[in-house]
Amino acid sequence: MPKLWHETMAAHRRGVRDAILHTAATLVADRGPHAVTMSEIAEQAGIGRATLYKYFPDVEAILLAWHEQHVAQHLEGLRAARDRADAPGERLAAVLEEYARQVHGRPHGTELASFVHRGERFERAQRELHGFVADLIADAARAGGVRDDVVADELAVYCLHALAGASTLPSEAAVRRLAAVTLAGLRPAS
Q1: Phi, psi for residue 37 in degrees, rounded to 5
Q2: What topology is assigned to 1-57 in CATH?
Q3: Alpha helix positions (H), 84-144
Q4: First and final C-alpha spacing in the chain
Q5: Which CATH architecture has domain 58-190?
Q6: pLDDT of 96-153, one tens digit each?
Q7: pTM for this one?
Q8: What's the burial of 16, exposed, middle or buried (CB within 10 Å: 0-12/13-18/19+)?
């Protein structure tokens, strides 16, 4: 198979998969995960049911794949924020602010959130996020910019729980203030 053909087919498959994920997430956000059928997803995505079933066996599998993609995009955003800063404390501050921005306005307590925020995949994503933040805290503590009287794992829990509050804040300015207050709680004791 020529390379161009392979690249074109791979791009087509990615496009179909993305359309399926987007369509399912939109339908489920409007009506809930138990009110959407595979036929509706296929129709709204503009593909046949047989094609849909080549990609996913059921609505749950689609939503879990959508969530996995969503989590990967969020983690990539956090890595990009980290990589734009130089010093350990700056990297931590950039990541905490980016995480707060990501959380801001995210609907919690919805039927969709409850549906995807369960199981091993979700727990694995939580562990990855926690480890990512804990490593940044440990680096900043070694550099003297973060308190070292509390272990990095515990401080990561503090940060992630504190910044979860950004979901209900009214503005970007409030999100930045919450990130700053959270970061202030990490400073070494005088």
Answers
A1: -110, 160
A2: Arc Repressor Mutant, subunit A (1.10.10)
A3: 88-103, 111-116, 119-142
A4: 66
A5: Orthogonal Bundle (1.10)
A6: 999 999 999 776 556 776 677 777 878 888 999 999 999 999 999 999 999 999 999 9
A7: 0.84
A8: middle
